Amino acid sequence: MKLSRNVPLNAMRVLESAARHLSFTKAGEELGMTQTAVSYQIKLLEDFVGAPLFLRKPRQVALTETGELLAGRASQAFSILATAVEEARNRTADILIISCTTTFAHQWLAKRLGVFQARHPQIAVQLALSNEIVDFSRTNVDIGIRWGKGDWPGLISRRIMRLDFAPVVSPTLAATIGGMKHPSDILKLPIISPNDRWWKHWFAEAGVTETDLDSRTRSDFGIQNLEAQAAIAGHGVAIVNPVHFAEDIASGRLLQPFDLVCNDGHDYWLVHTEARRNVAKIKAFTEWMQEEFPTET
């Protein structure tokens, strides 16, 4: 039996209140109903049960044996429901679920998230790594960190980081062709993910009008972190966001052979629903991110 389709739950709530007060009038005051509405709900429940639940006396009511039994069980049931709801509210209040791209999580968020958690030890953080755009109405995600133009309907978007791009390569691999003096020299080496649209954009900005990108094997790593690791291993030239791999460039594991850095209008954004903008855990995280990226927000 499906409870919601068979048991008049609103009438059960009215019964529980009327049984506690032994008064239809006081039950109505508690529930925001008229005495007539309370009487109607009790009559509806009596018809459903098939037995009287109250003895109506002048200026007072008394529970029948059946009414006392049903009211007691109803009180227990509502108490269990109230506890369950409170536990659910506490759980969701303490856990912040962040949908984030894999690269941003590995190269930025994971290295700094401890600062946020030290400041807000009562908030546990769960990362849901995905390059797909999540639907907030269908998931329990609280905040998204996604790349794009910030024009998602129904969401509050704050830009947090420019998503620039430029080629990077292992210094050892670059040395095999005598170094790189002109952007076209990149075409002398294997290119990682040659079908990435960033490549055509960057070569066009660099003034290289003829490339063989379309004729190369269309391998695609799909994630900047993997592409950078392949470049460090000497397997080819990758095109990534230099900010993400600044430590690798500074240490010499990667070489950014040209100063030209491009941007196609797609940046990193912090997003959440308008309706939940004042939820404490969401406010705490957005305020922290604003401190981390003061020039972008």
TrEMBL record:
Keywords, ordered alphabetically: DNA-binding, Transcription, Transcription regulation
Any GO MF annotation of the entry: sequence-specific DNA binding
One record GO biological process: DNA-templated transcription
Statement: the UniProt record of this protein carries the keyword Transcription: yes
Domain HTH lysR-type, chain residue ranges per copy: 7-64
CDD domains referenced in this protein's UniProt entry, alphabetically: PBP2_GcdR_TrpI_HvrB_AmpR_like (cd08432)
SUPFAM superfamilies from the UniProt entry: Periplasmic binding protein-like II (SSF53850), Winged helix' DNA-binding domain (SSF46785)
Family: Belongs to the LysR transcriptional regulatory family.
Protein name (record): LysR family transcriptional regulator
Native source organism of the sequence: Agrobacterium bohemicum
